[in-house]
Amino acid sequence: MRLTRRQAILSLPLSTRVIVLARQKDASANLDWTCPMDPDYRASKPGVCPRCGMKLALKVPERLEYPLRLSHSPEMLRAGQPVKLKLQVLDPATQRITTKFEVVHEKLMHLFLVSQNLQFFAHEHPVLQADGSFELAVSVPYGGMYRVLGDYYPAGGVPQLAVDTFYASGEPKEVPIEPSLAPSRAQNLTASLRMDPEKPLAGLETKLFFTLDPGSDLQLYLGAWGHMLVASADLIDLLHLHPFLADGGSQAQFNVIFPRPGLYRVWTQFQRSGVVNTTSFTIPVASL
Known about the structure:
Radius of gyration: 22 Å
Number of helices: 2
Largest sheet: 5 strands, antiparallel
Strand order of the largest sheet: 11-12-13-18-17
Distance between the termini: 36 Å
Shape: globular
Helix content: under 10%
CATH superfamily of the largest domain: Immunoglobulins
CATH architecture of the largest domain: Sandwich
């Protein structure tokens, strides 16, 4: 019978066992380099995180929340008309506007916008202004609520995900939200989805396996082999994720923990031959 590693260690003489366990502890203590975005990834030397491509840090600052403040002009926002969004990141200690940011996936800020009916999705990159605020010109197609997810990295802090909301007047478009797991066709590729477990459970990890067809000529998009936004049907929960495993081939794996039961819309972006493809699925998640 083949012993497990733990059984093998326990079978050693006590003096040898102490030495082995001490060496294991020393090896663990040497994993001092940490990814600021994925803190569970640690390494014994400097480098970049294999998941998100972010530079590893020897000491990650305390994980304080840097709130996002959103405003827009004109003040009365109407569907179909241009609007300028203004975003300010506040220092948690002083409540002043933060003016210095680190680059995250080739940009200073990623901004995701989702409409209440889940028919509008946008992944944009606001421009940093001289006063430290960010601005983005946009036009939204429907009346109703829009949720905004900002992804940014204040200098001296850690990467942040912050959510805000705005409303547009005008006619809303009511669309039933139903499960949709069929292959999703985008501009120049089709994505098929397989899940493990096949029926996701809230609070437990679900592995999302994407098969891309064609699986050739894939390129890094903003420093990653893919970008994913997960939104609950009520838009309370928003997650921005990158592949757990991907190498530029036809397969990509994302690991997701859906926080609550219900329906979730999942948008995933892959770049192929210079074209950014956005695929979407609607996944039912059951109670544990």
